[in-house]
Write a structure and sequence with these properties.
heterodimer, A: about 600 residues, alpha+beta, 5-stranded antiparallel sheet, 34 strands, B: about 300 residues, alpha/beta, 6-stranded mixed sheet, 4-stranded antiparallel sheet, 11 helices, about 30% strand, elongated
């Protein structure tokens, strides 16, 4: 017989009392069931589950603390070491006996109830029999090995325990530090998997380290502690280092690994791009970059992906938010900015805030307007100075914010209810005055768009143009778009709708100006090029259907038609449509992952610097 | 179950420059000693002299900071598991699990030792009057020692290590314990290392004795040789007479004009010369017991020396 089995058998022979206590507990659920008139099976199962898990947990701690620790402090481990048994056999035998004791005790308490009250067990106990068994087993194992570790450390009464605490804190800090950037990149799934792997590895270390502990420390509590801690922390360091390497690999995701881009913003000339997207082979982790398409210079932005990186309308400033806290407890983020010039450095502004409900940069990027649940606030980005704020906006609404001049901010509020309503609020910074338009029915879609000076608001799904100051309807288009993004408003207040293989162009009063044939049934309007061109994209699932078009409204011709591409721009939520220069290099997707640039004049594509 | 026993290695116990420290304190200080195969070695020392630490080194339970301990010619720290198959141990403090029944302890040992003698174990337990169903923790200290001895001897050890086996035992239990050891030694000629404060029985069975003092082995000698060179002398003169006769005094005590000294290099010729040259009409010489020698050597008074 293997010596570990012999030791386990010996230990189990001494544990008869524990099994007797379990047997006594097994009777309790049936006694408890007598006190209720209905659902007795449920009562039996519930009480049995509670007793079994509680007893198993308590036993796990007691056995973890005593199996080796008590023998060490009471100087009885020499009984084993004076015999021809190895340290590994002693630990494996004792650990196996303890785990068998836990399993046996759990089974003794639970089995009678399970056999008698199977229905109550299966259908009424919240976690179900199998889940309870698995959870109890995992918790029991963790408690046993954890208790052994704690017992080894505390019983030695050695100053080494201070080192243990320091190393434990260092390990937790390291795990937190490596998890944080992944979490902030939206990789919760990765962090959870990483924590599971780290926890499992640490559990294996806790289970195996006592072999070295006993082999090197033998009967001396302090040497046991020293040997255990040496193996524990050196192994944990390896695990944490490997995990840190993995975390580093995740957060070092290159620009070329981006897939499923969800936010691309460009400067008007197309030179600078803010690109955010999910990364390949890294779960749900998302990364953001600022890229100079001309030089290939790029900057990794460790911002909050869901707040995106915003490029000002003049294309000279990028703004984003990052968390300053190791543990994001307060939920506040710092605003960072960078001039979009080669070699410029990012600047941490003094501006710290919670994630706003809506935000918009002024055209020159110097001001940031945000809405909180009940306020409109306007900040100077560079200094973080609050330029103005007002309360009185609805807290249960969806909001969209935009500048209508440097000192005027307008907020579209849509409140949901039996009859959804909308209204526009105007906050005049110079006069510190808030005005509100009368309520009107909410648009069918939340996709709205403002013109260049913010004086007109286009409800894209409804084909309605409103005066943003008064809320009055200025125009109702005779042609409705099938989808909200199949229409758009140009800077001069005129509008376009794609439908039935035509681009319908209406003047600011809603009169039809032209119907321009396009080579697709309909297309999304994703940007404006120069003063008279619109950028269209079409196609859905199949890449062979993808197409990008530029239509010149003045010549009423399609000037660029590039098959196999679709727009990479974020065009579905921002009230300000991207504006490009005539000669811009516009970002487009070639397939799911490949970003390319197309020349707005010729449609020639060129590779994106990755 | 057990690794095969090494063949040809003799049941020798050896310590080579063994040093054990607990923090800054040296418990064992550069001890070198050998217990010859088939002999009985009594390791003596006052409480805290380092006996138990040295025994733990011999059992592979404590790694010396310097030097090494050997059993059967092998480093016991490295080869403990294999070597313990041939070693019986009676620890200073009975260390068997208190919940275990005596018969279960026998069962446990029977599975670990290939030369386990169940009948010898049962017979001894019966002779000691201990119930096999009794739990170890419920036994008296003497009974625990007896169970430990029965367990150790039933493994048919080639080396028996007894760490203060009579500590806390009454006279009857002490006698019984030594009788068992003596009986087994007579049967098989095992090598015995015994640490004890109970010097009288040891005197009759030990062939060699070592005395530890403050961790250092201050004496390591055949018992007979030791007893031959130690004498207690009383004479009516000043201690200077001892020096003149080249007699080394381990301890010296004066009263009035008389002197009592323990001589550690006694011989009849030197003593006769001293009597004659110093004109000592009254000079008394007496042999000493091991206990008296131990007190003279291990005692705290300044003259104590080997």
């Amino acid at each position: 017989m293997n010596t570990a089995v012999i030791i386990a058998s010996r230990e189990l022979r001494d544990r008869a009392r524990l099994f007797l206590i379990a047997a006594a507990m097994a009777v309790v659920p049936f006694g408890a069931a007598l006190t209720v008139r209905e659902n007795r099976q449920v009562a039996i199962a519930t009480v049995a589950c509670f007793l079994a898990s509680a007893y198993t947990g308590a036993l796990a701690v007691a056995l973890g603390v005593s199996s080796v620790g008590r023998d060490l402090t009471e100087k009885r481990l020499s009984f084993f070491f004076a015999k021809p048994v190895s340290a590994a056999s002693i630990w494996i035998g004792k650990a196996a006996a303890a785990l068998l004791t836990l399993a046996g005790a759990f089974a003794i308490v639970v089995l009678p109830a399970f056999l008698v009250a199977n229905d109550g067990w299966m259908y009424n106990w919240p976690v179900g029999g199998r889940a309870l068994t698995i959870y109890t087993a995992i918790i029991g194992i963790v408690l046993f090995f954890g208790s052994h570790a704690a017992s080894t450390m505390f019983r030695s009464r050695s100053a080494l325990i201070a080192v243990d605490f320091v190393l434990l804190a260092a390990m937790l800090t390291a795990i937190l530090a490596m998890s944080r950037p992944i979490l902030l990149g939206g990789g919760l799934d990765l962090v959870l998997k990483m924590l599971v792997v780290i926890s499992a590895s640490l559990l294996v270390i806790l289970a195996v380290a006592p072999v070295w502990q006993l082999a090197r420390g033998r009967i001396d509590p302090r040497r046991n502690h020293a040997a255990f801690s040496t193996v524990l922390w050196s192994s944990a360091a390896v695990v944490v280092t490997v995990a840190a390497g993995y975390a580093l690999w995740v957060i070092s995701a290159p620009l070329s690994s981006l897939t499923h881009l969800y936010n691309v913003e460009q400067s008007p000339d197309g030179q600078w791009l803010a690109v955010s997207g999910q990364t390949a082979n890294r779960g749900e982790y998302q990364a953001s970059f600022l890229v100079d398409a001309a030089t290939g210079e790029r900057q990794r932005v460790t911002g909050v992906p869901w707040s995106s990186v915003h490029v000002s309308r003049d294309g000279k400033t990028a703004v984003w938010m990052e968390s300053d806290e190791l543990i994001p407890r307060t939920g506040t983020f710092r605003v960072y900015t960078r001039r979009l010039e080669p070699g410029a450095k990012q600047i941490a502004t003094p501006l710290v805030m919670r994630l706003p409900r809506a935000a918009q940069l002024s055209d020159d990027g110097s001001r940031l307007a945000i809405t909180t649940p009940d306020k409109i606030e306007v900040y100077e980005v560079g200094t973080g100075r609050l330029l103005g704020a007002t309360t009185g906006i609805g807290s249960t609404t969806r909001q969209s914010i935009f500048f209508a001049g440097p000192d005027v901010v307008r907020v579209l509020e849509i409140s949901f209810g039996a009859v959804s309503k909308m209204r526009i609020r105007e906050f005049d910074l110079s006069r510190r005055k808030l005005t509100t338009t009368p309520e009107r029915p909410a648009p069918r879609s939340l996709m709205v768009q403002v013109n260049l000076d913010g004086s007109r608001l286009f409800l894209r799904q409804d084909g309605v143009v409103l005066d943003t100051k008064t809320g009055n309807v200025l125009t109702t288009l005779p042609v409705k778009s099938a989808r909200p993004f199949f229409s758009a408003m140009l800077n001069d207040g005129s509008t376009v709708v794609t439908r039935d293989s035509k681009l319908h162009h209406f003047d600011p009063n809603g009169a039809l100006v032209a119907e321009i044939p396009i080579p697709v049934q309909h297309a999304g309007v994703v940007g404006l090029v120069g003063s008279s061109k619109v950028l269209l994209t079409s196609g859905s699932t199949y890449t062979q259907d993808w197409r990008m078009l530029i239509v010149d409204l003045s010549t009423r011709k399609v000037t660029v038609a590039v098959p196999g591409l679709r727009s990479a721009l974020a065009w579905w939520s921002d009230p300000v449509l991207p504006q490009f220069t005539e000669d811009a290099a516009i970002a487009a997707m070639e397939g799911e992952r490949k970003l390319v640039l197309i020349d707005a004049r010729t449609g020639a594509r060129r590779p994106f610097p990755s | 179950m057990n690794a095969p026993l090494p063949s040809g290695s003799q049941a020798e116990i050896r310590a080579s420059n063994v040093t054990v420290r607990y923090g800054r304190k040296k418990a064992v200080d550069d001890v070198t000693m050998t217990v010859a195969p088939g002999s009985v070695y009594a390791l003596l020392g006052r409480n805290g002299s380092g006996k138990s630490s040295l025994v733990r080194c011999f059992l592979g339970q404590l790694k010396p900071q310097q030097g090494h301990a050997e059993l059967f010619g092998d480093d016991v720290w490295r080869h403990r598991t294999r070597l313990m198959e041939r070693v019986g141990v009676v620890p200073e403090d009975p260390d068997a699990p208190p919940e275990s029944r005596v018969k279960d302890l026998g069962w446990f040992s029977s599975k670990l030792y290939s030369r386990w003698q169940e009948s010898a174990f049962t017979r001894r337990i019966d002779r000691f009057g201990i119930s096999p169903a009794a739990r170890f923790g419920e036994l008296s200290k003497g009974q625990k020692k007896q169970v430990s001895l029965a367990l150790a001897l039933a493994t048919s050890p080639e080396i028996l290590i007894l760490d203060d086996p009579t500590l806390g035992l009454d006279v009857v239990a002490r006698k019984s314990l030594f009788e068992e050891v003596l009986g087994d030694m007579a049967d098989r000629g095992i090598t015995v290392l015994i640490t004890t404060h109970d010097l009288a029985p040891v005197e009759s069975i030990a062939e060699r004795v070592g005395i530890l003092k403050n961790g250092r082995l201050v004496l390591d000698e055949e018992v007979e040789t030791l007893k031959n060179r130690f004498r207690r002398i009383r004479f009516t003169s000043q201690p200077m007479a001892l020096e003149q006769a080249n007699l080394v005094a381990a301890t010296v005590r004066q009263w009035g004009t008389g002197t009592e000294a323990v001589i550690s290099n006694y011989d009849d010729v030197a003593f006769a010369r001293m009597r004659g040259e110093a004109h000592l009409p009254v000079a008394d010489v007496a042999p000493m017991s091991l206990e008296e020698i131990f007190i003279a050597v291990a005692g705290e008074h300044p003259g104590a020396a080997s």
